[in-house]
Amino acid sequence: MKIRLLLAALLGSITFFALPVSAAGDAPIIEELMRKYTFPLIFLQLLMAVLTVGYLYVSGTLPRVLLATWNWFDERFALHRYASLAKREYYSVVFTLLPSSGRTMPQSHTERYNVKSVWYWYPFYSLGGLSFFAYIILVITGIYLGFYYVPDGEITFDEDGHATSGSYQSMELIMTKVAFGYIMRAIHHWAAHFMVAAVFLHMMRVYFVGAYRNPREVNWILGVILLLVTIFFGYTGYLLPWDALGYAAAAIGLEMATSIPAMGPLMAQIVFGGTQVTADTVTRMYWLHIFVLPLVGTVLMIIHMALVWIQGEAEPH
Ligand code: HEM
User: Fold this and answer.
1) CATH T-level fold of 120-317
2) 203 lines ligand 1 (CB under 6 A)
3) What is the pLDDT of residues 193-204, one digit of tens each?
4) Which of 125, 139, 206, 208 to mutate to test the pocket of ligand 1 (most atoms within 8 A of CB)?
5) Confidence at 310, pLDDT banded by 50, 70, 90
């Protein structure tokens, strides 16, 4: 057991230290390496992470660690009581409210065939979990970027006459000077792309196996809101560096919002902080990106996944 843990720790540390490169942000050779090989390096790191988790799983360490963690919390907070209570209540409420149906919740595929982990049999069923995984990565890397990013959209001109801003300068700092800054931004960027794709494919999976049907309509609707949240996450984040692309995207979004009849200007005011692109636009996008959307998104994801836990996976139709 000890040797296994040691091996896992070794694999894990290679995973982490495979990329200490940006730690020496001001060393030009390393900067150059980072710039050239960002994508293969991220791939390497992800591969090592998958190998580590895979190894922990195969060696049986992961379930043991998870079980020990659950036990630790369960002994202190009697979690099992709430877990089984919630499940029992849910089933009995459905039966009491709909006695004519003569049945409780339909048995899930997992229950019927006593399948331990559904995704193991149906890879597409892992897409929701992968979306959540990407979200966790985004939260962690986002917190790191948040230590250095400055939401200052006031346009000024440097000595060469180039337009710049506090936001843009803070991004330059992250990319060139901050330890791990380059890789953190790169991971944040790619995880965002990954999440949008995973959420969309997850929705397709749910649609094509008919998992949106009774009794899972609420989860479908929550899912639609989560898709919008994911897209808005992407949009608001895209504007934050306040480079030419971000500025242009702000102008396009603002035009789209103001062109809505009657409600347009009010919506632009709420979302963009005005009907013109100004420094306030960045402040507004920043607050949406780092507070409002994470709050709404996290709460909805928890409810969404709690419902899956309560209702079980739908059987493919
Ligand atoms: C942030 C985005 C989302 C996350 C983190 C998420 C997470 C999950 C997870 C972990 C599951 C368990 C089964 C699986 O992984 O396939 C699930 C199931 C489900 N999701 Fe999502 N989801 C998201 C977005 C969506 C969207 C956009 C829709 C549809 C519009 C949706 C509708 C559903 C439904 C109906 C189920 C139940 C499926 C079944 O029982 O087979 N979700 N979700």
Assistant:
1) Cytochrome Bc1 Complex; Chain C (1.20.810)
2) yes
3) 999 999 999 999
4) 206
5) confident
Average pLDDT over residues 7-16: 66
How far does residue 137's CA lie from ligand 1's centre (Å)? 18
Q: Please work out whether the CB of residue 206 comes within 6 Å of at least one atom of ligand 1.
A: yes
Q: State whether the beta carbon of 115 lies less than 6 angstroms from ligand 1.
A: no
The phi and psi torsions of 127 (rounded to 5 degrees) equal: -65, -35
Cα(203) to centroid of ligand 1, in Å?
Answer: 7
Q: Where are the domains of the chain?
A: 120-317
Per the CB < 8 A criterion, the answer to whether 107 and 287 are in contact is: no
Task: Give the model confidence (pLDDT) of 109-118 as tens digits.
Answer: 666 666 655 5
Expressed in angstroms and rounded, the spacing between residue 128 Cα and the centre of ligand 1 is 5
**Nearest residue to 308 (alpha-carbon basis) of 105, 74, 64:** 105
